[in-house]
Amino acid sequence: MRCVTGGGEPWLAVAALWLTLGWPGHVAAQQALAAGIAQNSEVAPAAASTTRVPFAPAHRTIIATPSAANAWGGQRTGSEATLSDRVVSYTIDATLDAATHAVSGTEHMTWRNRSSRPVRHVYFHLYLNAFANNGSTFFTERRVLTAHGRSRGTAALKKGQWGGIALRRVQQGGVALKWHFVHPDGGPRTDHTVVSVDLDRPVAAGATLALDIDFLSQLPRVVERTGWWGDFNLVAQWFPKIGVLELPGERGANQVRWNVHAFHFNSEFYADFGLYDVRLTVPSDYTVGAVGQLQGTPLQHDGTTTYHFVQGDVHDFAWVAAQGYKTLVGSWHGAGSPQVTVRVIYPPEYAASAAPTLKSTTDALSYFSQTLGAYPYRTVTAVIPPYNASEAGGMEYPTFFTSQGYKKIVPGTIDQYLSDFVNIHEFGHGYFYGIVASNEFEEPMLDEGLNEFWDDRMMQQRHENLILASPWMKRFGLTPSISGFLMERIGAHLERPADPLAQNSWDRLSSSSYGTVYTRTATAMHDLAKRMGSGVMARAMRLYYQRWRFRHPSVADLRVALIDGSGDAKDVNQVFDQYVYGTRSIDDRVADIDTREVLPQLGVVSRDGKSVEVDRAELDQRIAHQRRAWRQGHPDAAPGSAGPFPWHSTVTVRRDGAPVPELLRVRFADGSREDVPWNDERRWARFDFIKPSKVVSAELDPRQSVYLDANKLNDSLTTRSNGAASRRWTADVAAALQTFYALLVTL
Fold first, then answer.
1. What are phi and psi of 480, to 5 degrees?
2. Among 198, 141, 200, which Cα is nearest to 167's?
3. pLDDT by residue (tens digit) across 58-74?
């Protein structure tokens, strides 16, 4: 069925579609369908079009203008009554039907109109409708983007596995309201992830709107981020959620506008801060975890248990309900933070992951609190999804995240590193997505990218590298490793970046290009930190956090904070212009080393104040005489040491990409070295050295500070061969073979 202007009830269309596709909760849907709430049918929006607040741009989303100082109410000082400016509040009562993985709910929402104009229409995200059919924006984009690069979330849904949200009732002051689906980004008409609600009475400037909403949410089988598998239910993006009304001076807006994008394949989320008061009713034998603090003792009735969670100053709510799961509880406390209860909810098959997850989470609490700012909430809940539901892992919500499980974690192996990194990364989102509430739709680098960078710094401080060893390799002493930042560099597509880092999440060449939001941002920030100094970068990032906590910054606001915090406008602007707003690449190389002895001159020369002509025979004789005399005077001279004549060496460097400050390290035959800075716009440069001995090697970036350089193999050049590397690899291979043969002998 399709939804047309002036046509039938949208939720009826969705419910009928679910019936066609075999939704497991068909009985509830059939009852809702039979109810036929005709007064909620769509109306044509054209009559009121002149009064509608416009949408944020669908494609011109890169923001270069900093936000106004008073954006989002101005910087939070900590003296306010609440941590955030609470624009919304949700009171939700929800019941899980464990057999059908359906959630029925009632929602009382209040929303404050921050603008200076009345609002006659409000917009809600119905995220779960991305999984209602393959005509959604999510599935339409998935077909294109995954064809040009790998991506997570490629599961194919079968009959009985689709999901979605059906609006049963929307009321304002007891008056039933009408709604219709809209497409703010111009996507397929079959996408139903954004709905416009026509209000009975406008919301005046500064006034508060109250709506009562009944809804029915069907979880899909896990595809990505949310859903069910077996008796596991990750309930996320599950309730009607109002969009964000942005004001002039906020995130590049020059007029009041609704920022309420469709649910794109690579996009995540963006919402106002508020208060969540949620009651969850589930079967009594299910384990429950959620955003926020549990209030009082859960209430049991007729085989079900109702849990009451409350959390203020967050912008989303997710929860898990799973049968047969266990909980490991710990606590943490740091300066300026409340006592934090840390919970790990895990399936029995991944019991080995529980304690490592608890430890890496508490370690992350310490690191992020010390480097950015005190953790302000009283809970952190980590959920380990079951086997076959890994796409529900690696997802973040305020005070709540999902990780990944291992049946066995051997210290010093790749499994330990990946477990630690995923936990730290997902917890870190609690800062970059949670507290610094960036727009993940439009500016994913502010969340995924900056978080990845800060996670790598934490792993570096822990001296924890990516160990490319399995348990059996470690048993035989084979433990190759690579640093996190080097791993980011390898996956950063540095040669020909397709999209600027500041680009939104959906206007991307491919899912692989979207992946560089993580890797290329971390690499660019690594290089910027090397330029300005690690301590200076830490100070600048802390300023960014303090300035924009409980607000919504843009990429342009990050740029200003980094400049203000470091005082290094030149380097910050260069990195932003070239990589954040541009798609430049770097490839500096040592092209040539030329050496020659500085011999006496042939031809007319000055000697004792007179001009004389020196011919070849005389010159050769003089040179031979000086060489014999030098050897007689230096019988023990080592090879490469100074001789009778100085050497003139010329090192040529080439630049095939964007300019970047480089250090050229030149080594001479006598063992000495000289460092020369190359920090200009030239496409090539020659550096001359007149020394007692000749240049034998030259290397750009000897300190390995420029990870953005696409090809590090051409950064150095030598005038003589060196077999050390090949001998080392040969020895390693020989050792591995000897170990293997020794193992065979014992069998």
1. -65, 150
2. 198
3. 999 999 999 999 999 99
Element (H, E) at 729: helix 724-746
Share of the chain above pLDDT 70, in %: 88
d(CA 3, CA 181): 8
For 570-594, give one letter per residue: b (16+ CB within 10 A) or e.
ebbebbbebbbbebbbbbbbbbebe
Q: Where are the alpha helices (DSSP H) in 430-533?
A: 444, 450-461, 471-475, 484-490, 511-532
Strands 299-301 and 716-718: unpaired
Which of 18-32, 433-447, 482-496, 643-657 has the least mean pLDDT? 18-32
Return the bridge partners of 649, or none: 595, 689
Q: Helical H runs in 131-189?
A: 137-145
DSSP reduced 3-state for 303? coil
By DSSP bridging, strand 340-346 and strand 379-383 are: parallel
Q: CA 693 to CA 690: how far, in whole Å? A: 8
DSSP 602: P
Compute the distance between CA of residue 207 and CA of residue 273 in angstroms, rounded to an integer: 17
Q: Report residue 626 as tokens.
A: 């000086």
pLDDT tens-digit profile of 294-314? 999 999 999 999 999 999 999
Place of tokens 């009732």: 169
14 three-state secondary structure: helix
pTM of the model: 0.88
Distance CA 703, CA 530 (A): 10
CA angle 225, 228, 233 (to 5 degrees): 90
What domains are defined for the chain?
Answer: 1-44+86-272 (no CATH), 588-720 (2.60.40)
User: What span, in angstroms and rounded, lies between the C-alpha atoms of 10 and 733?
Assistant: 65
